[in-house]
Amino acid sequence: MAHEATKLTAQDRTDFGKGASRQARRDGLVPAVVYGHGSEPRHVLLPGHATSLALRGNENALIELDLAGEKLLVLTKAVQRHPIRTGVQHVDFQLVNRNERVEVEVPVTVVGDAEPGTIHMIEAANLLVSAPAVSIPEAIEVDVTGVAGGTIITVADLKLPAGVEALGDAEAGVVNVADENAVTEAVPAADEAPAAEAE
Prior knowledge:
4-stranded mixed β-sheet; single chain; 13 strands
């Protein structure tokens, strides 16, 4: 399923350096760079609030930039956020076209109801996939419904959306479904811990 690209209006950035970046942010703008397809990197400024909304919860957002009437289809590649304040500090975009495939890391989420007495642990927080630029999944869902304890769900076991291919080791574990008892037994109780060697 193709995603509609979020539309953002951009302007060419003419001033560079830390001072210019700080001033842009004070003016509610986010510096960004667009690269790819063999072209020179283009430095642009984006509206801060709209950019934060567009990138919320989706680090691989597909964006259509309107740069003085020129339309650029871009894929979000890196987002710098401020450690304390909310908002986006800087964005790297990669030029794409609607017909190409791209390689992206997509977060893994667990869905479904686990069997009673089991606990699941995500072994791979992100999965590297190849997907059409216009239909990158926001997450790879791993269903744990009815999965017995002692099962490791591997890349090969995943049901991926149409057109999406996992890259890397098919046997790599993605989610580990374990028996709760096995997990608690594996952690020694405090009174069984080795005595401190200082004694």
